[in-house]
Amino acid sequence: MPVTRARQARIGMRRRQSHALWLSALLTAVAAPAGAAPVCSVSATPLVFGNYDPLSGSAVLVSATVTVSSLTALGPLAAIAYTVSQGPSQTSGTMRRSMAGPLGARLQYNLYTSAARSVVWRDASGGSQTVSGSVTPASLGVPLARPHTVHGSVPAQQSVRVGAYADGILVTVNY
Fold this sequence. Notes:
39% strand; single chain; four-stranded antiparallel sheet; mainly beta
């Protein structure tokens, strides 16, 4: 049965450092018994769409990074296979992505697995996909990170109110 660790990434918010998570993971590595399972974590840089012009005929395209890190406490340095999925929108509670704005306004957007923005990055339901990979820790107790690019798009010509819009996505790594 896979182990699941979840971290929440805020879209359009300031970058949140995960020093406490790393410290916790390193302490776990030191205290772990022989044959202990690897420890993985996920972090994300903010996906900031910037200013949106509803009269523009072009979508707003931006990218951010989701990074999977892993370390092993004891035992062989084997590759750790994982998948990264994204849950529903925090503001809408559905898989349809929208950022919340002033007076209940919504600005639609989506997240994709490639720069072509043809495959939605979610949980593998409804035609969406997860992102898979593997990571091999560099040495005992030393984490190794593997970045994955998230491609975001806000469709053109949405009629929305002026103001700040934000959303949060739950990013989960299964390994």
